Write a sequence for this structure.
């Protein structure tokens, strides 16, 4: 039984190849270096958070507060910098803010024992509210060029934006940890059966706390990227990103029921969504088409595995008769 | 006497209701204008849409499911009602269009969750996107202005019956109807059983798939009809109508004791939760807290409510609503 088995994440990778090829040949300007740079910038924040969110969903939890945490990190950077803190330290403050947001979620879920869905709807409102409390109606727009140029320019001599470094480095770390370390296997074990994981000696609560903290930290990293890219910190930035992140993770083959998922499936999924968005934009489709396509892809990602399951069950029933 | 008090506190809605009374009393003493007729009208008018959607949502949440598509549905419905009316269609036709849209979305959600056994979080997240996308495509830059709104609907939005906004009366009637249905009708009791223990409810002979399907259709249908209320409330509709309402609705349910874990809660609680959130928002304003803090306080309130609920009731073990009910 060493046969190649077709799984959803491989399908997504295949789809990425198909849409890229179709885009390169069929859509003018798609294959230009400018456009590739733009796509990578466009998916940056979503991809960074999706890496960590994959772990959470694989472990059977969810975090809806990531976009608010991202923006709270951005708001922190803005407020610190406005009050005279050097920009580098303001960025550190933003990262810490993200981490603290994640730790609060993790504490409420693992120590207080609340459901992550309900908790993070609450912290979604709380963190977003704190952005308004910090900034009021005054976005911070004056940021040092030496930093913001990192947000929009490419690595010298290439057409890759600086954010690609973060995408590759964090992608590698999250990929190796999930698939090649005991910690990663524990995460998957928790997702398959939390009770069994607990009885086999896995520190379930501590692991989940770490996952929430990591998701918060990655939201902080994404917050820094977001702040630099738009050279501003405003209270209403990144609204609705949480659903885009979750959609990308689920479309990448991570099961909402937990226990199943690969990191490269998620990365392929984020890229597919970025490429599809670019293709639609360059072909003069409206932004609405992207909403519809995202929803349809998300739906297909759950219908397909279920359908193949039903077909397999049907075959089995026939052969046993 | 003590046993009556003890029993009262076992009703999930009582603590939330007391919190509501407390908020109103404290704010009222600090700022007497809060007690005025207009203060009450501010709360009741502002809360009507969320209250109606919360009643609808409670049918789904007690089954340990969730419907995130309601914000897109209600917005699209409000827009369609306005469009049909601007073409000169009679009121009944406008409402029928809204209702059919809601039922259509509910049928799709319900079919996929009940019969394909897909997780409701993913299914309704998808339909949130798809319905919003179709809505924006249809709407484009069009805005429904007050001249397009059917006169009866705009009358409801601007007038009061004995000082109570008509829109809130609609919410109250729906709440009582929903409350009676969920208390007394057999199929609605089945929803609680499904939410408490899905495999067991199938074993005792409850037609689980059919019940789930029905509940999603009801939630969709109410959300569709509620488009008229959204239109009445704002007298306008555009591509962003109803955007993001779904999370407020879920928050209202959870604060009102309709637990995400399923199996508990009533439409009364959901409405009280919605009113409490609205009252606190306005109370902060009346107490002079800068409006920028209001959302943060709402978040803290939601977290406190579920923490308190967890502390008070140990009988509901944490479960995961995202899991497929196999």
């Amino acid at each position: 039984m060493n046969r190649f088995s077709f799984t959803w994440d491989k399908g997504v990778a295949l789809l990425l190849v198909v849409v890229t090829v179709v885009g390169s040949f069929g859509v003018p300007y798609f294959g230009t270096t400018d456009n590739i740079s733009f796509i990578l910038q466009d998916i940056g924040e979503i991809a960074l958070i999706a890496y960590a969110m994959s772990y959470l969903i694989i472990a059977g939890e969810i975090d809806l507060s990531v976009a608010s945490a991202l923006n709270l990190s951005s708001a922190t950077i803005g407020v610190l910098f406005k009050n005279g803190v050097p920009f580098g330290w303001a960025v550190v403050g933003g990262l810490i803010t993200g981490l603290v947001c994640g730790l609060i979620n993790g504490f409420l879920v693992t120590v207080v024992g609340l459901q992550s869905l309900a908790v993070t709807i609450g912290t979604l409102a709380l963190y977003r509210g704190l952005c308004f409390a910090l900034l009021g109606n005054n976005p911070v727009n004056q940021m040092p060029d030496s930093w913001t140029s990192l947000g929009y320019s490419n690595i010298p001599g290439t057409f890759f934006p600086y954010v690609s470094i973060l995408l590759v480095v964090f992608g590698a770390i999250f990929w190796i940890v999930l698939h090649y370390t005991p910690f990663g296997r524990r995460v998957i074990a928790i997702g398959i059966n939390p009770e069994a994981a607990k009885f086999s000696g896995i520190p379930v609560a501590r692991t989940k706390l770490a996952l929430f903290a990591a998701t918060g930290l990655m939201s902080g990293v994404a917050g820094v990227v977001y702040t630099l890219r738009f050279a501003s910190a405003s209270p209403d930035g990144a609204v609705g990103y949480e659903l885009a992140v979750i959609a990308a993770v689920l479309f990448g083959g991570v099961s909402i029921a937990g226990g199943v998922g690969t990191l490269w499936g998620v990365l392929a999924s984020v890229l597919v969504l970025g490429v599809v968005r670019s293709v639609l934009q360059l072909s003069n489709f409206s932004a609405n088409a992207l909403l519809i396509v995202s929803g349809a892809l998300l739906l297909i990602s759950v219908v397909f595995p279920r359908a193949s399951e039903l077909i397999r069950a049907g075959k089995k029933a026939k052969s046993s008769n | 006497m003590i046993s009556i008090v003890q029993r009262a506190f076992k009703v999930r809605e009582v603590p939330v209701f007391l919190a509501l009374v407390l908020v109103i009393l404290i704010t009222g003493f600090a700022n007497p204008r809060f007690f005025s007729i207009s203060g009450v009208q501010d709360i009741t008018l502002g809360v009507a849409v969320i209250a109606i959607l919360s009643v609808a949502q409670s049918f789904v949440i007690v089954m340990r499911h969730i419907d995130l598509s309601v914000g897109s549905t209600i917005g699209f419905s409000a827009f369609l009602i306005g469009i049909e009316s601007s073409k000169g269609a009679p009121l009944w036709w406008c409402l029928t269009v809204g209702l059919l849209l809601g039922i259509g979305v509910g049928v799709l959600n319900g079919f996929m969750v009940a019969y394909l056994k897909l997780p409701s979080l993913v299914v309704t997240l998808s339909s949130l996107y798809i319905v919003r996308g179709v809505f924006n495509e249809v709407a484009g830059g069009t805005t429904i202005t007050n001249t397009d709104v059917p006169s009866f609907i705009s009358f409801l939005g601007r007038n009061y019956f004995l000082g109570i906004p008509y829109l809130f009366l609609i919410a109250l009637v729906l709440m009582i109807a929903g409350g009676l249905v969920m208390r007394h009708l057999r199929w609605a009791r089945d929803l609680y059983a499904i939410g408490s223990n899905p495999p067991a409810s199938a074993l005792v002979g409850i037609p689980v798939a059919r019940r789930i399907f029905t509940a999603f259709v009801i939630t969709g249908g109410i959300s569709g009809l509620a488009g008229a209320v959204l239109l009445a409330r704002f007298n306008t509709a555009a591509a962003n109508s109803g955007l993001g309402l779904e999370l407020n609705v879920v928050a209202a349910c959870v604060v009102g004791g309709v637990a995400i874990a399923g199996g508990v809660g009533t439409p009364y609680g959901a409405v009280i939760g919605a009113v409490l959130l609205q009252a606190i928002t306005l109370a902060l304003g009346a107490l002079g807290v800068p409006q920028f803090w209001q959302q943060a306080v709402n978040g803290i309130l939601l977290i406190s409510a579920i923490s308190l609920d967890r502390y008070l009731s140990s009988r509901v073990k944490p479960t995961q609503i995202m899991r497929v009910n196999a």
Remarks:
- The mean pLDDT of chain B is 85.
